[in-house]
């Protein structure tokens, strides 16, 4: 119960403030859109750039942790896509968007603040290693699968170009790549630039959490409820369970286990709705899954915290 009060509720209270502010009309929807543009296009890419540029790559890119986490994510994608097709009878293009809901957990906007609240700032290094690969891997899988489905299974050179264009137009991925460039080159940044980046980074997570609440206020619980509950089960139970079991099999260190499982236990991120809207497929299911899973994760994250070392 203490973890629920000290770790989880403060984070979700900020989300709740954003939700109530927009719901009651105290903060406009256009204001939320502007805030999220700032967060996703500037503040969070700078956060990722700073974190990756300063990360000890040799220490924190632990292959056992990455395999455990992304095997669980891939299992979520496959279960979501096949379940959408064979359990719920959706078209294949819808199924790819549904699978993306099981693939893309909210590792950044929820995973970072919850891990920091639970285990302190020093525990975030492993999270950054996961996040550094999260968008490239997940978008790579989702876009490739969707383009193959749309091309009726025929992949050509155009497919590669479409995937690369979609990925490298994403500011989060650009921030990650620039962070790797600075880290690997050893290029020192001027002190004033570092100070400016640190100021910007401090605003990233609080603004993001408030913005997430505002975005959720615009969603409506619509779509196939059984399918949404199925996706909640995949995101909140299956993904972290696979990650935890593989972590035990690989004898994963405690710190890496905590970061991997807690990140895997996050609800689907807003990116699943962005992905669905990119292709105009399963948008109501994606939006409802984000809303319902985020609400349910208040309890499920608390339960996972209780079972972590």
Short key terms for the protein model shown above:
mainly alpha, 309 residues, 14 helices, 0% strand
Care to describe what's here?
This protein has 14 helices and no strands. It is mainly α and 309 residues long. The protein is globular.
Tell me briefly what this model is:
The chain has helices spanning 2-23, 29-54, 57-60, 63-86, 92-103, 111-119, 124-150, 157-168, 171-185, 191-217, 225-249, 254-264, 271-279, 283-306.
Main beta-sheet strand count, sense and barrel state: none
- Please tell me the overall pLDDT: 86
Note the overall shape: globular
Radius of gyration: 19 Å
Question: Residue ranges: pLDDT <50 for 5 or more in a row?
Answer: none
Fraction in helix:
over 70%
Estimated share of beta-strand residues: under 5%
Q: Give the number of helices.
A: 14
* Number of beta-strand segments: 0
Assembly classification = single chain
Structural class: mainly alpha
Order of helices and strands: HHHHHHHHHHHHHH
Distance between the termini: 16 Å
Please outline the helices and strands.
Elements: H1 2-23, H2 29-54, H3 57-60, H4 63-86, H5 92-103, H6 111-119, H7 124-150, H8 157-168, H9 171-185, H10 191-217, H11 225-249, H12 254-264, H13 271-279, H14 283-306
